[in-house]
Amino acid sequence: MATCPQGHASGADDYCDVCGAQMTGAPAPQPQAQAAVPAAESCPVCQAPRAGQFCEVCGHDYTGGGAPVSVPLSGAQWEAVTAADRTYYEKVVAEGGPDAAAMAFPPYCPERSFALVGEQVRIGRRSRARNLAPEIDLTGPPEDPGVSHLHAVLLAQPDGSWTLVDPGSSNGTQVNGKAVKVNVPVRIGPGDKIHLGAWTVITIREGTP
Predict the structure, then answer these.
(1) DSSP H/E element including 113
(2) Which of 4, 32, 43, 159 could hold 55 in an S-S bridge, CB 3.0 to 4.6 Å?
(3) Under a CB-based contact definition with an 8 Å cutoff, are residues 167 and 153 in contact?
(4) First to last CA, the chain
(5) Cα–Cα distance between 33 and 30 in angstroms, integer?
(6) Looking at residue 74, what is its pLDDT?
């Protein structure tokens, strides 16, 4: 029978049956490894907390490390044409959206065309503070106050098509009159109309501007 450091006779050779002291020569207990608590992911560009596929501050795409999308060498196959839509504006005002009464329809808003090139095309208003310069810049003039700085993103697909994602804009996005759910890709094609802000419409067309 073993004797513990306190002088008690113990039938166990690891800890004393009487006082619980560790027996001489018994292996020290190994500390249990604590499970690592994953830290909240932040944007590698601006350090803002992640809220979805795209950073809401600078527009960084968290999936940028995936397989690159093949972009045709012949140039853009599609274009996005921006304009003002009075019918949509009147609908926004009638529904009493945020600051609807203070939003005036622009007396003049010429169409602008943007080529859909690259792996992603961001839609919004540029911001120096956020170092954000969207490819489809709706800063104006005229400026649609209902458009977020990063309102939506067009993503090129391997088959040459495009999808649209709303990363969480303030006033939402519609494709052909249907609301787009946040961070849920929606396939778009020539002839589709994307409505956003107070009066902005973006029409997808075939051809390079």
Answers:
(1) strand 112-115
(2) 43
(3) yes
(4) 93
(5) 9
(6) 42
Model pLDDT, residue 140: 79
Residue 9: both structure tokens together: 């006779």
3-class DSSP state of 88: helix
pLDDT of res. 179: 96
Across 106-185, the runs of DSSP E, i.e. the strands, are: 112-115, 120-124, 136-137, 152-156, 162-165, 173-175, 178-179
Burial letters for 78-87: b for 16+ Cβ neighbours within 10 Å, e otherwise? bbbebebbee
Tokens of 89: 């504006």
Phi/psi at 101 (nearest 5 deg)?
A: -65, -25
d(CA 202, CA 85): 9
Q: Which parts of the chain sit beneath pLDDT 70? A: 1, 10-12, 14-15, 17-21, 23-40, 42-53, 55-60, 62-76, 97-101, 208-209
Those residues with Cβ within 8 angstroms of residue 139's Cβ, 6 or more apart along the chain or in another chain: 125, 126
pLDDT at 114: 95
Q: What are phi and psi of 68, to 5 degrees?
A: -65, 150
- What are the residues facing 82 on neighbouring strands? 112, 202
How far, in Å, CA of 126 to CA of 26, rounded?
68
H/E stretch holding 90 reads helix 86-94
